[in-house]
Every structure is written in C-alpha cells, then in structure tokens.
Amino acid sequence: MKDFLSHLFIPRESNNHRAKILHHTNLFLTIVFLFLASFFIQTIRVKFPAVLGIQADISSDQLLLLTNQERQNAGVGALVINDKLSQAAQDKADDMFAYNYWAHNSPTGKTPWVFIKSSGYKYVYAGENLARGFTAPEDIIKAWMASPDHRANMLSSNYQDVGFAVKLGTLNGEETVLVVEEFGNLNMPLAGSKIQEVAAEQANTLPQNVQAVRQQPLIDTSSLSSNIYYVFVIVFIAAFLLDMIIVEKKKVMRFVGHNIDHILYLLLILILISLWGKGVII
Predict the structure, then answer these.
(1) Which positions ≥6 away from 104 have C-beta within 8 Å?
(2) What are 191-240's pLDDT values in tens digits?
(3) What is the 3-state secondary structure (H, E, C) of 184-250?
(4) Which of 28, 103, 166, 206 sits in a 20 to 30 Å window from 129, CA-based?
C-alpha cells in the first residue's frame, strides 16, 4: 500500500517522475467519475428526496421576527402580517414555479402589483423582495440587508403590512426554496403624494398566516456535492505542490510543467465551490 501511494502521489522513476494521479489518463478518469457522481446524486435526489435533498428550515414567522428586529434597530415601526399580502406572495411564488422564471415580472406580463391587487389589497404603497436557494431565514435577511434596494424595502416607513410565501419547488431545473416578501400600506398618503411601487429581487400543519418549508433529508445534497468536490480539488492541489517541491529538490528535467498555473486554477475552483449552493438575490 505504501508503495502504491508513493507511485500515485510522489514523482519517481516508476511513474516517469510525474505523480501517477497527475497523468492525463487519471485526470480524465477523475473528470468522468465526478460527472457520473453528479448524475447519480441528481437521480437519487429526484427518486428519493427523503434520503438526499435540500435541508431547509424557513418559516414566515421567523422572517417576520427578523425583519422587525432590523426595523426596530433602525427606529422604524414593526410590520404586521396581512392575509391578503400573504395570498399575493403565495400566488406570486406559484406563478414563478408554474412559468419557470426568476424575476419580478412574469413572462405572461403580470407585475408584482397584479398579484397584490388580485388579492384584494388596495395599497397606497407596495414593495416586493425575492430570494431563492437559501436554507435559513437569518441568511435571507442578511442578504437583503446587504443590498441597498432590498434594505430600503425592509426599513421603509411607508410600509405597515407584510405577507410572505415560502415554497419548495423546481426552478430552472433545480430544486430550490423560493421566498416572496410583499410589503404594503393601506393608509392614504399626504396631499400631493403618488402611489409608490418598489420591487427588489434578490433567489407540517402550521398556524394561520405561517408559510414554511421544513425539510430534513438524511443527506443534504448541497453539502454532499460540495464535500466531494472539495476532497478531489484539495487532493490534486496537494499532489501538484508535492510534485513541484520534489522535482525542484531533485532537479529533475522534464518538459511537462505549469504546476503553479494548475494550482491557481484549482484554487479558483475551490472559491467557486465555496460560493456554490448559496442563495441568490438579484
């Protein structure tokens, strides 16, 4: 086993002074393995969601609590859940999954204000925040607060009511949790004021008004996929570093090089993996 590992990872005469794991054939086989593993994971996700799927715990009451905490910190009055806005948010989430889009305006031409008006909420001020791909309410609020447009909606004194939809579904071929937050105010504005519409996009039995996704699969898909890629990338970075150090130390002459380029490329992949699976706001 020791000799096998040395042959696999350490440049020496038996592998033509190039770690066997870095030979083109093995690199190709690794890519094929990762592709097949990705296909296998996706198949298991579809057929056995209780075993392999998205791990998420998000509810509208948590989002309301966190939103009002941010408003309190900013010296703004608290929002209250409105049934009609919650219905508007649910209709918007259903429409996004039904027509497979990630935007404020539906391909059918419906704006956020159509859903709000259809719910019977006759607003003076209205706003919308969207999020997808998050698995915890705290991360959603942080993302919205970090964006100027979303933050403006979150902390606006023009709003008194809010409604949420939290729904699990498939968007653009990917299973995801979609969160819709609709803001509103029924009070009449001051003389001369205009109706305001502001939109900001950022991707169990429950009590009344509470929308939630609570899913606890045996294995979390995003963590499993990321960990697999992490392991392979780190192994190859270590192999390239070891190869570079030993070749330099032994003064081995060869035409195959560019280890530093390979390492930088793999480090870039590591950064992309760390960002992969996180929620998005647009």
Answers:
(1) 111, 112, 128, 130, 199, 201
(2) 444 555 666 654 433 334 456 565 555 566 666 666 777 777 888 888 87
(3) EECCCCCCCCCCEEEEEECCCCCCCCCCEEEECCCEEHHHHHHHHHHHHHHHHHHHHHHHHHHHHHH
(4) 206
Helix (H) or strand (E) holding 171: strand 161-171
Which H or E run contains 181?
strand 174-185
Stated length of the chain: 282
Residue 210 has a pLDDT of 52
pTM: 0.68
Q: Exposure pattern of 202-232 as b/e (b: 16+ CB <10 Å)?
A: bbeeeeeebbbbebebeebbeebbeebbeeb
pLDDT tens figures, 176-190: 899 999 999 997 554
Question: 């004194």: which residue's tokens?
Answer: 157
State whether residue 177 is helix, strand or coil. Answer: strand
Give Dmax (Cα) for the chain: 87
Two structure tokens written together for 242: 């070891």
The alpha carbons of the chain give a radius of gyration, in whole angstroms, of 25
- Distance, in Å, from the CA atom of 34 to the CA atom of 228, rounded to the nearest integer, reads 8
CA angle, corner 80, sides to 139 and 141, nearest 5? 10
Q: How far is CA 167 from CA 43, 181, 250, 251, 260, in A?
A: 22, 12, 59, 60, 45
Do 199 and 103 contact (CB within 8 A), yes or no? no
Task: Pull the structure tokens for residue 117.
Answer: 């008006």
The residues of the chain scoring below 70 in pLDDT are 7, 17, 41-56, 188-226, 251-282
